[in-house]
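Lab meeting, action items carried over

1. Structure of the four-component assembly. Owner: GW. Status: complete.
Input record:
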Amino acid sequence: MTELNLEACRRIVQAALAKGVAIGCAPMSAAVLDAGGNVIAFERADDTPPGRFEVARAKAYGAVMLHKGGRAQEALAEARPQVATALGGAFDGKFFPLKGGVLVRNAAGRVLGAVGVTGDSPDNDEACAVAGVEAVEGLVAEP
Amino acid sequence: MTELNLEACRRIVQAALAKGVAIGCAPMSAAVLDAGGNVIAFERADDTPPGRFEVARAKAYGAVMLHKGGRAQEALAEARPQVATALGGAFDGKFFPLKGGVLVRNAAGRVLGAVGVTGDSPDNDEACAVAGVEAVEGLVAEP
Amino acid sequence: MTELNLEACRRIVQAALAKGVAIGCAPMSAAVLDAGGNVIAFERADDTPPGRFEVARAKAYGAVMLHKGGRAQEALAEARPQVATALGGAFDGKFFPLKGGVLVRNAAGRVLGAVGVTGDSPDNDEACAVAGVEAVEGLVAEP
Amino acid sequence: MTELNLEACRRIVQAALAKGVAIGCAPMSAAVLDAGGNVIAFERADDTPPGRFEVARAKAYGAVMLHKGGRAQEALAEARPQVATALGGAFDGKFFPLKGGVLVRNAAGRVLGAVGVTGDSPDNDEACAVAGVEAVEGLVAEP
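Predicted assembly:
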């Protein structure tokens, strides 16, 4: 795969939401962005608060814009909180340095986009995002 | 139905995209928003320009925020362009007074949300949005 | 070419500015964006007003986000001014429906990005943008 | 020199990117702003994440707006994080208090603009920005 198509994105989103159900999480929401940071697909599960799109997109957007997964962003934000604040400003609020933002690469290592998942703890959000990416053959998740 | 659930939103989005294929449109994108204007689901078809999310959401957002479908918004914008400009400002750019934004009501007339579709001509966008809403039993489309 | 590299973007920018000098225009400015709408290169000539970056980027951004060159955007804006206003809102001000925004495709027709040029009349801006794109072998300008 | 011209800015940008290559950094991006905070030139190297323009400009913008290099901004942000947050808001997100933003003065001490470089560690970003400024005779870098 050289870029994410809608069929792949649907599977990512639905596998991420299904993983949340399987491991007993609160209802999940997931966004998939292309390599330029533009939204391809999003779903918010039933019985979730309304603000999920903004958080899910922000987790994925920061990952794409920096080519860094949520863990690396979280480490950066803990080491240098003022940099995290500055990135939030530079990216107009579309930055969320927490587990749950996962970079999507193809087998050759090329960045195809990112997934952002939110709904439960950061660890569970990340597990669901990774499960989503791994549901599509040939994609590699970088949490 | 008293509020849109994800299953209904998936059917709306997928029926809207399928309608576009069926009537020979350019590839479509569709967003569904709840009664509070917050995104529940979005999909962008393959081979579309990257800016589809912003337009699809804006079409649906204006519909929900004003309880007016795209046609009524378009008529308003033609009669009073300065009001349309002001609404764009008031809604922070999430306003798109054109066919393709369709209000979603239940059988009792209650507003449950809105759909925004973009990809082809305004008339075709509207036809796809209406087809999406009508794919779910009990929902009424107000274009 | 499957995506714009910096060497190509430098040639586009410099050829656009040189074209302006060659045809006797006021000093030019040019921005090149990738297929996701993100800036790769920009230059503002000497003796220009300071606001050139925002205009040049906006011309290119609208082209990439809609897959429409400046002429098509201008025609849209003339036919339906309220749609142009709405697009400006949806794209957060990064929309400038005027000649001078030129889509960049490769020989196979794939959109690689866009160029936005500003400094003189819309016709001259467009001529410079096209000259920039055509300075790179294998690129096709869609004004 | 009493103000930055495009030729000087090109040399700054290209020398900054070349310095990164010379010292083995990840690919660099560099923006040059004039004394009013407006962009004159920007380049993003190949194989970089797409969000570089926003960060590079923000580093330079804060330097110009405050007449403080990145080091001084970083010290301020560490001593008074809430001031850094406020500056990010006041400058609409165009503030990045980290090494890599370098003020550009002429020999007489007059501020002519600033350079913002991003791509590797803050120390390396700063080294590249300084190398860029020092590539132009008569310019003094204030990191």
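2. GW to write a short summary for the group page. Key points so far: Chain D has a mean pLDDT of 97. The longest helix of chain D spans residues 6-22.
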